[in-house]
Specification:
- The chain has one domain: P-loop containing nucleotide triphosphate hydrolases (Rossmann fold, 3-Layer(aba) Sandwich).
- It is about 35% helix and about 15% strand.
- It is built from nine helices and eight strands.
Length: about 230
């Protein structure tokens, strides 16, 4: 039976795509069939699709970055690096929650053993005038994988994001604590602080992997923690 998870975060540019790519890569290496999707993407540069989040996920799945592959991976792409509702309006387009949900529900019908849907921005990022990413996860009815940072203020952001999910009855299958960027204290200390308030949520630490090509290939084992929650 397929396992499906929604990869979300406490904010933007924290590491959702890196984590999603790492999981896709590790699952394929373990002989597990995978399907990754990022239905909505802001900040898409049509002249450099390889460098986009969609391009990264296609690389991790061993697929060529072609227009059809991009359309299947990420049908809703916007150039402005803004929240999806603002990016759509900036381009004179309309992004409908029902369309996002429909595309995602089709994605969940994939026959892969592991299905990952990556969100956009943080848990409460607006998708349209009345819906957020949290509403998206809730409507799909699948557990969330929460990616957070080790920067100053991250503990508050993490607990806020977790509370927002749990208040909607969304299960947090695991928490990935990313060391990307400036971390004022060692990740284990931040993890310990978070654990006092989220004792039942499994955690995995992800050190800063640098900016070299395909850093997701060097990520520590994330798959074991994810699959152990089944």
């Amino acid at each position: 039976m397929a396992q499906a998870f929604f990869v979300t975060s406490s904010g933007t540019d924290i590491g959702k795509t890196l984590v999603t790519a790492a999981l896709l890569h590790q699952a394929r290496a373990a002989g597990i069939s995978v399907a990754g999707f990022k239905p909505v993407l802001s900040g898409f540069d049509a002249d450099n699709p390889d460098g986009s989040d969609a391009g990264v996920l296609l690389h991790a799945m061993g697929q060529d970055i072609t227009p059809p592959a991009l359309d299947a991976m990420t049908p809703f792409r916007f150039a402005p690096a803004l929240s999806p509702d603002m990016a759509a309006k900036r381009e004179g387009r309309t992004l409908k929650f029902d369309d996002i949900l429909s595309v995602s529900q089709v994605a969940l019908q994939d026959d892969a053993e592991l299905i990952l849907i990556e969100g956009v921005g943080g848990v409460m990022a607006p998708l349209d005038d009345t819906h957020t990413v949290r509403d998206w996860i809730c409507a799909l009815g699948i557990p969330a994988l929460l990616v957070v940072g080790g920067y100053l203020g991250s503990i508050s952001h993490t607990l806020t994001a977790a509370t927002a999910l749990q208040n909607k009855g969304i299960s947090i299958t695991a928490l990935v604590l990313s060391g990307r960027g400036d971390c004022p204290v060692p990740l284990p200390e931040t993890a310990a602080a978070i654990s006092r308030f989220l004792p039942d949520v499994r955690q995995v630490l992800l050190p800063d992997l640098g900016d070299s090509p395909h850093p997701w290939q060097r990520a520590p084992d994330l798959l074991t923690t994810l699959m152990a929650t089944r």
